[in-house]
Amino acid sequence: MLTKKENIEDVKKIMGIEVEMLKILPKLSEKMDSFNPWVKQIPSIFQELDLKENQTILDIPCGKGGVSVSLAKKYNVKVIGYDIIKEYVESANKLAKKNDVNNLCTFKAGDIRDITKKKNICNLLLWIAPPHIWKTSKNTIKSLRNCIKSNGLILIADAYLYKKNKKYEDYETLESTNKGYTFYGDKIIKFIDYKDKLWKKDYDRTKKSVQETLNKTKKDKKLIEKYLESLDKDEKSDTKYLGLAIWIIQINKK
Ligand SMILES: C[S@@+](CC[C@H](N)C(=O)[O-])C[C@H]1O[C@@H](n2cnc3c(N)ncnc32)[C@H](O)[C@@H]1O
Question: For the whole model, what pTM was predicted?
Answer without folding.
Answer: 0.94
